[in-house]
Amino acid sequence: MPSCVVSRLRKARASVADNPAEGLKRWALKLEYDGTGTVGWQRQHNGLSIQELLEKAAAKLVGGQAVSSATAGRTDAGVHASAMVVQIDLPDNAMRDARQIRDGLSYHLKPHRVAILEAAAAAPGWHARFSAISRAYRYTILNRPTRPVLDIDHVWHVRRPLDAEAMQRGANYLVGRHDFSSFRAAACQANSPLRTLDKLEVRRAGQYVTIEAKARSFLHHQIRNLAGSLQLVGSGQWTPERLRDVLAACDRRQAGPTAPPEGLCLIEVGYPEDPFA
Amino acid sequence: MPSCVVSRLRKARASVADNPAEGLKRWALKLEYDGTGTVGWQRQHNGLSIQELLEKAAAKLVGGQAVSSATAGRTDAGVHASAMVVQIDLPDNAMRDARQIRDGLSYHLKPHRVAILEAAAAAPGWHARFSAISRAYRYTILNRPTRPVLDIDHVWHVRRPLDAEAMQRGANYLVGRHDFSSFRAAACQANSPLRTLDKLEVRRAGQYVTIEAKARSFLHHQIRNLAGSLQLVGSGQWTPERLRDVLAACDRRQAGPTAPPEGLCLIEVGYPEDPFA
């Protein structure tokens, strides 16, 4: 592991205890949420975050005590999740079982578009972020002349017909361990632009084109930037080979635009052992 | 054809001309709409209908002239469509091509959740309702403990685990030509309770259970009533065989509850020749 990554991990770990504080018990939660109208996962002053909604619901569940949480992935404003994994440390005298946690939190999260799919007592040392070994996202494009109706806020609308096979040929150049500087947001805080993309699959199903991406971790905006460039290949503005050149350039200005957030959904977080098994 | 059906067809045909009036040209439209918050397809005094939204958009398109439309299926309040077929008669001096009609109507339908997927000049004598030879609907159940989030307003939430195979065994008793009085709304205006159900397929895909139904035509609430009874079979409260007995009883009180509208979506209307080919 490069030393910069090690130091970053140490710094991050120092800010979140690997084990819950005295008197607290850690729970693993699987969340579904609709990011529309939120500022994303992380608490911010300028709007409603999923984290704030969850922590407020948890505080209600335990009688007003402040509760802190951490996530496997900090999604951006407008990005969705069908299976985000989060940890939350609750007073261990709460005497609640996993089902009560799941249903109680989901109840207190109403009427917001956030709910708990699963809850489980976390194994010793388990951390939602640092124990995770993979993240998978799906980016969905609605590819037709007419604007989205049934899928509004959940797809990127692209009018120009897309060739999904050409997009897959381009995507194949990006799979593997690379310097992804060309697909990294200027605001990205990661110490290294190196990432290993384990999967980048493009498929067409009727009027939908989906891009599924899986990696241990992603750079800020990486998938939306990949989607923005893949769309240029699909519409014939770029050849598939151009993605190889853009990647090699290590220059964000060489790549395509950032695709909008509403097409993106976190669909899976992987751990060495399923925390909900 | 039973004489009652013939007389009903004559009556209905008399109220809508088979051909557009002098100076008008008929267009076939394929619509996608989200029925949430509407009173359904048909114009009513107590709320917003898809028909009113479409006719108002069309009037804007042709400079204020009143426009009338007819549909292949009058969906209820809260029911959706991904491919409803509708006809609309526009002044034939409008000099518009199909693409202008599609995009112009979709534009004037904003910000409502209704848009035109396809438009085509109708063949002589073609009628959206009377020329149709089949309607297909999908009913979607979200089958999990947690309330819907990403699918809110588009699924029926059923907490109790459902056995889709048992539901299919029950559904098989209902396929074919039967008196469907047990699955017919009290307000149904059809002259005959006889219908031929060509397809009733139940499938599970992860946390979703879908019921696809296809017939030349359906009775009022027929699919929602079928879904309500199939759910009782899936949850083990009824045996699959009970559906055979309920059907034979020809008595609405013998069947299960009416499933809620939000799970229902019209997905296809069939014609001898595809009006959009």
Verbal overview:
Two copies of one chain form a homodimer. Chain A is an alpha+beta fold and 277 residues long. Chain A has two domains: 19-131, 2-Layer Sandwich (Alpha-Beta Plaits), CATH 3.30.70.580; 134-268, 2-Layer Sandwich (Alpha-Beta Plaits). Chain A contains six helices and ten strands. In chain A, strands 1, 2, 3, 4, 5, 6, 7, 8, 9 and 10 form a ten-stranded mixed β-sheet that branches. The longest helix of chain A is centred in the first third of the chain and has 13 residues, at 3-15. Chain A is globular and about 60 Å long. At the A-B interface, helix 3 and strand 4 of A face helix 3 and strand 4 of B. Chains A, B: This is tRNA pseudouridine synthase A.
Specify Rg of chain A, calculated over alpha carbons.
Answer: 20 Å
Low-confidence stretches of chain A: 1-16
CATH class of the largest domain in chain A: Alpha Beta
Shape of chain A: globular
